[in-house]
Amino acid sequence: MKTKLEKRADQLWKTYEASSPAFWRKYEHLLGTAKDKVIKREETLLSVKNTASYTLYEIENSKTSSGQINPIFELLFSAFCITSLLAGLITASLDASKQHFIYIYVITFIVTLGLLWDIFFKKDKEPPQVSGYKVLNFAPDHITIERGDEVKKIGFKYLTKIKYQKHCFRLTAKFPDHEDREYTIPLFDSKGQKLAQAQIKHIYQRLKIGVQNNR
């Protein structure tokens, strides 16, 4: 079935006269109408393609800061300090030799390490607790990050760095006449589970493409 534009074109060509100014005025008008419809359709498709929304959750015991002490290092340091104290006390009370001190130290260290291990890593066995969420919205030339009533709009042309960390994305933006600003995007679902790697990669690619398309 022909569209309205096609029917109008057929009717127009039936009255074709090469020397008629009226014909060419109508022809130009028809071309302009067709062009406007094509542009509007392309803009609609582009908007649908580039608009997306993600609800991403924060959890209480996620270690999103790169400045936190490595738990293994913290465990070993604590075990070393406690073992040194206990081994010294035991050796002094038994008036043991240096050779016996080494045996006492090794045994005490192993026992202390075993006890501290459960204390340090028990929290990793507990189910994660969701503490809040952010909504990440994509538009053709910018993103918005919503948290409650707070909405932050960031143009892709201002994004200078997109860094993927263990539990989040860290975005760095440079706005005119402002210092660099950082934004954190968590990577957990509503159950406190980390997003699948494919989902994380998809969000990352959207961010990178947005930056590339708006340079």
Give the arrangement of secondary structure elements:
Elements: H1 4-14, H2 21-50, E1 52-59, H3 71-94, H4 98-121, E2 130-138, E3 142-147, E4 150-155, E5 159-164, E6 168-173, E7 181-186, H5 197-213
Antiparallel strand pairs: 1-2, 2-3, 3-4, 5-6, 6-7
Description:
This protein has 5 helices and 7 strands. The chain has 215 residues and is α+β, with helices and mostly antiparallel strands. The protein has 3 domains: 4-38; 52-66 and 129-213, PH-domain like (Roll), CATH 2.30.29; 71-125. It has a 4-stranded antiparallel beta sheet. The model is unreliable at 42-49 and 63-68 (pLDDT under 50).
CATH classification class of the largest domain: Mainly Beta
H/E element order: HHEHHEEEEEEH
CATH 4th-level superfamily of the largest domain: Pleckstrin-homology domain (PH domain)/Phosphotyrosine-binding domain (PTB)
Whole-number radius of gyration? 33 Å
CATH architecture of the largest domain: Roll
The side-by-side strand order for the widest beta sheet comes to 1-2-3-4
Which spans have pLDDT < 50 for at least 5 consecutive residues? 42-49, 63-68
Counted up, domains total 3
Broad shape: rod-shaped
Average residue-wise pLDDT: 77
Give a short overview:
With 215 residues, this protein is α+β, with helices and mostly antiparallel strands. Helices cover 49% and strands 22% of the residues.
Features:
3 domains; alpha+beta; PH-domain like; 215 residues; four-stranded antiparallel beta sheet; three-stranded antiparallel beta sheet
